[in-house]
C-alpha cells in the first residue's frame, strides 16, 4: 500500500466580528469544495474546522508532501471562500493571510500555514491535529520540548525501549531560513538554548532517533517575514502521531495543562497565556484573547479520518481535566492585563506586529535635547 500524506493547511481569510470567529458559511463553502475533491479522488478524506478566525483544512491523500494539486486545492478553497463568502458578507480582514494573487504550485511562502507529513500507516495510527489562534509558531516550542524530550512529562522516554534513544528535533531559524537537527537527550541544552528564543527558532519536525520515523510536524510560516510588514499573526497548527513507540495521546496533551506565556494576543503585540479549549470555546474575546489552542484526535484508517461520532474528532481539550489550566489562564490574563502597554506585557518594539513608535519618535525628534 502506498504511503499516506496528511496535510493541515490554514489561513485567516476573514472573520466576524473583528478577529473573533470564522463564519459558518465559510466553513460550509470549504466543506463543499473538499467534498468535490474527494469525489474527484484527489484526496481521501478531510475535516474542516476553525480555531478562532483561522480556517483549518485537514486533508488526507496519497499524493505526497508539497504536491501542487493538493496545495492548489487548499489555495483555491481559501481564494473562493474569500471571494464568495468573506467579501460579500464584508467579513473583517477578508483574505488577510493570502499574500499573493498568483499560485505557483505550493502554498508555502504565500501566506497560509501548513503542517504536512507522509508516512506508512501503522497497524493503528492515532493522530492529533493542533491549531492555535492569536499567537505564533514559537508557541509550540515549549510543549514540543516537554512531549519529546522531558522524561518528567513523557513517561515513554523512560519506559518504552523504542523511545529510549530519544527524538531528533529539526529547528528552523526563521531569520536566516536555515535548519539544524538536534538530538535529545545528547544535545538537549543546545536545543533549549535555541528554542527558548521563540520568535526566531521554531521546531519544524520531530523524528524518532532510533529509525528516523516522523513523529510531528508544525507550521512555521512567519507572515511578517514574508510580507516585510504587519499582515496578521502567524497562528500555527501542527500534527502529532501518537502511541506504540511514540508519546501516548495523554503524554502529548499533558504539557498544555500548563498555560504557558506566548506572544500574540491583542494586535499581535502582547504576551498572554495559551488556553487549551474545546472547539466550542475556540474563539477569542477579552483583549482579543487570551490565545487559544485546540487538539482534535483521530485514528487514520487507510487514510480515512475516524472520529468518535461520524467524522467528528475527539475534542481533546474539552475535557474537565483542562478546567484548571483554563482557570489559571484567566488569572494570568487578569494579572498581565493590569500592566497595560508596559513591557513585558507589551512586546518589545522589534516584535510588535505594528507600532506607532516610529511616528512618535519622528514627531518628538526636534524636542529631544542633548542630555549631559
Ligand atoms: P485595525 O486597524 O484593522 O482595526 O487593526 C486592529 C486590529 O484588528 C487588531 O485587533
Ligand atoms: P489574527 O492574527 O488572529 O487575525 O489576529 C489579529 C489581531 O490583531 C488580533 O488583535
Ligand atoms: Mg484575523
Ligand atoms: Mg487568527
List key phrases describing it.
372 residues, alpha+beta, ten-stranded mixed beta sheet, four-stranded antiparallel beta sheet, 16 strands, 26% strand, binds 1,3-dihydroxyacetonephosphate, binds magnesium ion
What does this structure look like?
The protein has 372 residues and is α+β, with helices and mostly antiparallel strands. 24% of the residues lie in helices and 26% in strands. A hairpin with a 2-residue loop joins β2 (45-51) and β3 (54-61). The longest helix has 19 residues, at 68-86. The radius of gyration is 20 Å and the shape is globular. Bound molecules: 1,3-dihydroxyacetonephosphate (2 copies) and magnesium ion (2 copies).
Provide the residue-averaged pLDDT: 94
The secondary structure category is: alpha+beta
In one word, what is the shape?
Answer: globular
Oligomer: single chain
Task: Characterize the largest beta sheet: strand count, sense, and whether it forms a barrel.
Answer: 10 strands, mixed
Uncertain spans: none
Radius of gyration: 20 Å
Number of strands: 16
Topology pattern, helix = H, strand = E = EHEEHEEHHEEHEEHEHEEEEEEHH
Helix content: 10-25%
Q: What's the tally of helices?
A: 9
Amino acid at each position: 500500500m502506498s504511503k499516506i500524506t496528511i496535510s493541515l493547511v490554514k489561513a485567516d481569510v476573514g472573520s466576524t466580528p473583528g478577529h473573533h470567529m470564522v463564519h459558518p458559511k465559510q466553513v460550509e463553502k470549504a466543506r463543499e469544495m473538499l467534498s468535490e475533491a474527494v469525489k474527484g479522488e484527489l484526496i481521501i478524506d478531510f475535516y474542516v474546522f476553525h480555531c478562532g478566525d483561522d480556517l483549518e483544512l485537514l486533508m488526507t491523500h496519497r499524493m505526497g508532501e508539497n504536491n501542487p494539486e493538493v496545495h492548489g486545492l487548499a489555495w483555491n478553497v481559501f481564494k473562493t471562500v474569500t471571494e464568495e463568502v468573506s467579501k460579500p458578507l464584508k467579513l473583517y480582514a477578508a483574505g488577510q493571510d493570502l499574500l499573493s494573487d498568483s499560485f505557483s504550485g505550493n502554498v508555502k511562502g504565500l501566506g497560509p500555514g501548513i503542517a504536512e507529513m507522509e508516512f506508512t500507516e501503522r497497524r493503528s495510527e492515532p493522530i492529533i491535529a493542533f491549531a492555535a489562534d492569536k499567537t505564533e509558531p514559537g508557541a509550540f516550542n515549549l510543549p514540543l520540548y516537554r512531549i519529546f524530550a522531558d522524561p518528567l512529562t513523557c513517561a515513554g522516554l523512560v519506559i518504552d525501549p523504542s523511545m529510549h534513544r530519544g527524538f531528533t528535533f529539526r529547528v528552523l531559524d526563521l531569520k536566516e531560513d536555515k535548519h539544524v537537527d538536534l538530538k535529545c537527550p545528547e544535545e538537549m541544552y543546545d536545543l533549549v538554548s535555541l528554542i527558548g528564543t521563540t520568535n526566531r527558532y521554531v521546531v519544524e519536525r520531530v523524528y524518532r532517533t532510533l529509525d528516523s520515523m516522523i513523529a510531528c510536524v508544525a507550521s512555521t510560516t512567519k507572515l511578517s517575514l514574508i510580507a516585510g510588514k504587519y499582515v496578521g499573526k502567524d497562528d500555527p497548527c501542527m500534527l502529532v502521531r501518537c502511541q506504540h513507540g511514540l508519546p501516548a495521546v495523554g503524554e502529548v496533551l499533558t504539557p498544555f495543562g500548563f498555560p504557558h506565556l506566548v506572544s500574540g494576543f491583542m494586535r499581535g503585540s502582547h504576551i498572554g497565556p495559551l488556553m487549551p479549549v474545546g472547539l466550542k470555546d475556540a474563539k477569542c474575546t477579552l483583549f482579543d484573547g487570551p490565545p487559544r489552542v485546540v487538539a482534535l484526535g483521530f485514528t487514520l484508517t487507510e487514510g480515512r479520518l475516524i472520529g468518535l461520532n461520524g467524522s467528528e474528532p475527539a475534542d481533546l481539550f474539552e475535557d474537565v481535566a483542562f478546567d484548571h489550566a483554563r482557570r489559571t489562564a484567566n488569572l494570568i490574563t487578569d494579572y498581565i492585563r493590569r500592566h497595560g502597554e508596559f513591557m513585558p506585557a507589551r512586546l518589545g518594539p522589534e516584535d510588535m506586529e505594528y507600532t506607532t513608535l516610529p511616528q512618535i519618535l519622528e514627531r518628538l525628534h526636534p524636542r529631544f535635547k542633548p542630555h549631559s
